[in-house]
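Hello again, I could really use a second opinion on something today. I owe you a coffee for this, so here goes:
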Amino acid sequence: MDVYDLADRWPDAINLAKEQLETPKPSKYWYKVLARAYAYTNQQDKADEAWETFKILRYQPE
């Protein structure tokens, strides 16, 4: 599944990622999507925070 195809715009990608992260067992890759979407919408502080979270979770099993 290509997450970026599901969102017509980056704000939609942000909303989609936030929704997915609220599920009981979200994929850690949603943090990567969130970081990229925040970066494209000039929200660098939030992008950095999401990327740091992804880096922490990156090597942990799903």
